[in-house]
C-alpha cells in the first residue's frame, strides 16, 4: 500500500507555510485552502471578495488538474469569508466554476485570513472511478 502523496504544481501559489497544496490519500484528494495569490508572482489578485474568489477558484482548479482531476471530482468545499455580506457575490462566482451537481459545501465567516484576503476555499475531491 502506498501512503499519502503530496500534490504540487507551479500553476497554483506555493504554500506560504508548512503544508502541501494538496495530499492524495488513496482515492481522496485533500486540497489546502486556496487564496487569491497569483501563482507566478505571489501577488494578491483583486480587491473585492468576488474578484478574489475568481483567482481562488482558478488556483483550486490548477491543484485539481495537477492531481489529474477537474471540478467534477469535488465532493466538498469549505468557503471562509471575512464578511458574510460578501456571500452573494462569492456565491455567484463559485457557481460559475462548479459542475452540476455541485459539491457539498460549508461557508463560514472568520475574523481574519492569511495575507488579509477576503476569501479562502479548501476542498476534498474523489479521484476514484465510478
Number of helices: 2
Distance between the termini: 21 Å
The secondary-structure element order is EEEHEHEE
User: What number of domains?
Assistant: 1
**Residue-averaged pLDDT, rounded?**
96
Question: How would you explain this protein's 3D organization?
Answer:
The protein has a six-stranded mixed β-sheet with strand order 1-2-3-6-4-5, covered by helices on one side. Helix 2 links the parallel strand 4 and strand 5 (about 105-110). It has a single domain (about 5-125), classed as 60s Ribosomal Protein L30, Chain: A (2-Layer Sandwich). It has two helices and six strands, in the order E-E-E-H-E-H-E-E. The protein is of the alpha+beta class and about 130 residues long.
Write the layout of secondary structure elements.
Blueprint lengths: L4 E3 L14 E4 L2 E7 L14 H18 L7 E8 L5 H11 L6 E6 L9 E8 L4
Parallel strand pairs: 4-5
Antiparallel strand pairs: 1-2, 2-3, 3-6, 4-6
Care to give the gist of this entry?
The chain is an alpha+beta fold and 130 residues long. It has a single domain (5-126), classed as 2-Layer Sandwich (60s Ribosomal Protein L30, Chain: A), CATH 3.30.1330.40.
Amino acid at each position: 500500500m502506498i501512503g499519502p502523496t503530496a500534490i504540487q504544481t507551479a500553476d497554483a501559489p506555493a504554500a506560504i507555510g508548512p503544508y502541501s497544496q494538496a495530499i492524495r490519500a488513496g482515492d481522496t484528494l485533500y486540497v489546502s485552502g486556496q487564496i487569491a495569490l497569483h501563482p507566478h508572482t505571489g501577488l494578491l489578485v483583486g480587491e473585492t471578495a468576488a474578484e478574489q474568489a475568481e483567482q481562488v477558484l482558478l488556483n483550486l482548479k490548477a491543484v485539481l488538474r495537477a492531481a489529474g482531476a477537474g471540478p467534477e471530482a469535488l465532493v466538498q468545499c469549505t468557503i471562509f469569508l471575512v464578511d458574510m455580506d460578501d456571500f452573494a457575490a462569492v456565491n455567484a462566482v463559485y457557481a460559475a466554476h462548479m459542475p452540476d451537481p455541485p459539491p457539498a459545501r460549508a461557508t463560514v465567516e472568520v475574523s481574519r485570513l492569511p495575507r488579509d484576503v477576503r476569501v479562502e476555499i479548501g476542498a476534498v475531491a474523489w479521484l476514484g472511478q465510478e
